[in-house]
Design goal:
Blueprint (H helix, E strand, L loop, with lengths): L36 H7 L4 H17 L4
Length: about 70
C-alpha cells in the first residue's frame, strides 16, 4: 500500500537528513525525504489531509528529478 493512503499517514523520513541549499523552487529540500524545512517542522502536528498533500508534492518532486 502506498504510504500516503495509510491511516495514520507515515512520515516520509528515511533518516537521511541533509538539506540541499537550493532548488528550483528557491527552497531547500531534504535530500532524504524531499520535504522543505517548513513541511518537516509542521509534520508532527499536522492532520492527515496535510500529510497526504505533502506526499503528493513529494511524488511530484520525485517525477522531476533527473537521476542521470
Amino acid at each position: 500500500m502506498n504510504p500516503e493512503l495509510q491511516t495514520p499517514v507515515p512520515s516520509p523520513c528515511i533518516s537521511l537528513c541533509e538539506m540541499a541549499p537550493d532548488t528550483e523552487s528557491g527552497k531547500g529540500l531534504c535530500r532524504g525525504c524531499l520535504r522543505t524545512l517548513d513541511e518537516i517542522v509542521a509534520w508532527g502536528n499536522a492532520p492527515d489531509e496535510y500529510k497526504r498533500a505533502v506526499w503528493a508534492e513529494i511524488r511530484r518532486r520525485e517525477a522531476e528529478l533527473d537521476f542521470d
